[in-house]
Every structure is written in structure tokens, then in C-alpha cells.
Amino acid sequence: KAGVTQTPRYLIKTRGQQVTLSCSPISGHRSVSWYQQTPGQGLQFLFEYFSETQRNKGNFPGRFSGRQFSNSRSEMNVSTLELGDSALYLCASSLGGHRNYGYTFGSGTRLTVV
Amino acid sequence: AQSVTQLGSHVSVSEGALVLLRCNYSSSVPPYLFWYVQYPNQGLQLLLKYTTGATLVKGINGFEAEFKKSETSFHLTKPSAHMSDAAEYFCAVSDNGNSGYALNFGKGTSLLVTP
Fold this sequence. Notes:
The structure holds 2 protein chains of 2 kinds. By secondary structure, chain A is mainly beta. Chain A is about 5% helix and about 55% strand. Chain A is built from 1 helix and 11 strands, in the order βββββββββαββ. Chain A is globular, with a radius of gyration of 13 Å. Chain B contains no helices and 11 strands. In chain B, the strands form 2 sheets. In chain B, strands 2, 4, 5, 9, 10 and 11 form a 6-stranded mixed β-sheet that branches. In chain B, strands 1-3-8-7-6 form a 5-stranded antiparallel β-sheet, with no helix packed on it. In chain B, a hairpin with a 5-residue loop joins strand 4 and strand 5 (about 45-50). Chain B is globular, with a radius of gyration of 14 Å. The N and C termini of chain B lie far apart (about 40 Å). The mean pLDDT of chain B is about 90. The interface of A and B includes residues 33 and 42 of A.
């Protein structure tokens, strides 16, 4: 059974550019969440999508956005990149909700902004 | 909002020794608690979770955790450490605050296992 697939694994972008990250959840999982991981702030929740609708949103600026497609694949976009956006971005999928099923995480996309 | 505090950012144990990673939570409602493990250059893997019911929760790879409401704790233990247990461990609590049902993670504890 395939796990959560995130592409690309590594990205280097220049300040001011925008970036799109992709996540393919486990087959049958309808919930996809995104987390940012940095050494200073740790793991922080970005947003969650369920059946193509944003269900929850963390405390991040509007430069961070996402969407989910009908096949449950999800993308997140960061516009006007800042140096502080350098982080590991983790996607997690769940059958229904993490409370009862837990998350399955992908290996992440490591974004470096220069 | 619910939160967790992990005591000790680094823990070192000898192979075969008891592993004890500490986590205390803050919650105004019955908490949903989790332990995740992260190996280098990988995502997080669910070790175990507590929702309701039995307070001693068994997880994968021989780990278990006990929910103690009176102590607001959810410490992770393993009777005998293996070299392969070396990783970063995260305690988390499900938050139903402004972010809906998101996970609030602790800062993590890096476990080092020495021969």
C-alpha cells in the first residue's frame, strides 16, 4: 500500500518567488493536513482539507494557501517567499480525522529560500 | 488551547536500558494524546494514541504510554532500548481551539541510544 507521497523532496527558491508543493495521500484518505517544521518553532499546523474543502486553518499569513482536488491530492502554495519560510513542509493524510485514526505523514518537502 | 510540554530535549540511554520520555499536557477538556517518532530525513510515524478508555496504551515497536489525569502526564516508555530507537520523539495533543481539530506538538525529545 503506497504511503503519502510529497513532491518535490527538495526545493531552493529565491526570496520573492512563489512555490507550489504537492501531496498525494494514501488511497481512500479524504483528509489532508499540512504542517511546517522549523528548528525554532517546531511543528506548526498550516491547514486541513477534507473533501476539497478547507476545514481548519492555522495561524499563518495569507501568503500560505492550499487546495484539494477531487482525487484528494492536495497542493499548498506560498507566495512572495521570505527567508523565514525555509522549512520542512509535511503533509499528513487521515482516513477521517486524526483524533480517531491518527495521521500518516509523508517524508516532506524541504524548502530553502535564499 | 491545549498544549504539551516535553521535558528534556535530549535523552541518552544505553542499549537494553529503560526508555522514559516525559510529556505533560494542558487541557481544559478530556484530551486526545499522541506520540509520534521521526527518523532522520523522514516524516513522522504514529507510535500510539490515547482517546478514551484504557489509560495504558500500547503502541508499535514495544512502546507504551500511560495517561495519568491526576498528573496531567502521558509519558512514553519502552522496557529495553534498541539502537534502532534513536530518533526524535514528539508528544502531541489534539486541539479544538480556533484551528479546529489540529495537532499541537511538543518541541520534541531526541533519543540517543549508546552501545
